[in-house]
Amino acid sequence: MTIEQIIVLAIVQGITEFLPISSSGHLILIPAFTGWPDQGVVTDVMVHVGSLFAVIAYFWRDVLKLIGGGIDLLRLRINDNSRMAGYILLATIPAVLFGIFLNASGLGNSLRSVELVAWNAVIFGILLYAADVFGPHLKKMEDMKLAPALIIGVAQALALIPGTSRSGITMTAARLMGFERPEAARFSFLLGIPAIAGAGAFVTLDFLESGQQIPPDAIWAAALTFLAALAAIALLMAMVKRVSFLIFMIYRLLLALLLFAMLYDWVPGLPGLAAV
Asked: Which conformational region is residue 230 in: left (phi greater than 0), alpha (psi within -120 to 50 degrees), or beta?
């Protein structure tokens, strides 16, 4: 990859991973818009790992509590931290199972479609705003129970389909469960830690077992993603305290409109995209 491609990938991933606009969808769009060769699944996973370390750095206090809670859970000591660690682990299972299915069935690569990204931008953008606006939202993360944790976990599994947005769909589910906007974002980010770590480890081990090495370009992209992701997390956590998710729904609808226009030549003179 060129240095330009590395920088663009890092910035796009770092920003879009934590804003509810779908990082995987935007990573697919980069080669579609620029004409660069597709960076591939390995690079996609590595930049997600850069995002992972950004979450750990920003929420380090929560992470330490979850680690302590996990140790207590293994010792069968039940307290607030061990319960939260258990909820995070249980909520991760649906995404793991769905990821295994996609990998085993070969459907993962076939889902890297611009048209699918466009449709999911519309569908899940509207759901995000609807969940944000309607219903009471009074719960804190400390009010989390088993049922809502599993529902949010099932929602996270859908984020393996590009264009859905992992943070978007999990915050949508949390808002539907009655959680305050900042608390929904906080749980969403913490829930992403084992999911992203697991995906990164799985793809990395599979890649290394095939006799290949992680490209240095992908490692550089991951490092730059870490910096962009830190800034994006701070921005979103500040925004969710003051504004609704309306701005993100509008962005998703406008992005979908642009993609459909380019896919189906709605506007004369607008560059086209392959409807793959």
From this structure: alpha
Sign of CA dihedral 133, 137, 140, 145: negative
CB neighbours (10 Å) of residue 215? Answer: 16
Q: Which tens digit of pLDDT belongs to each residue from 16-65?
A: 878 888 877 787 788 878 888 877 777 777 888 888 899 999 999 999 99
For the entire predicted model, the pTM comes to 0.85
274 in a structural domain: no
Tell me if 66 sits within 8 A of 84, measured CB to CB: yes
C-alpha to C-alpha distances, 172 to 126, 153, 252, nearest whole angstrom = 10, 12, 14
Number of domains in the chain: 1
Residue 268 resides in a domain: no
Q: Do the beta carbons of residue 218 and residue 46 sit within 8 Å?
A: yes
Residue 228's domain spans which residues? 3-263
Structure tokens belonging to residue 242: 């003051």
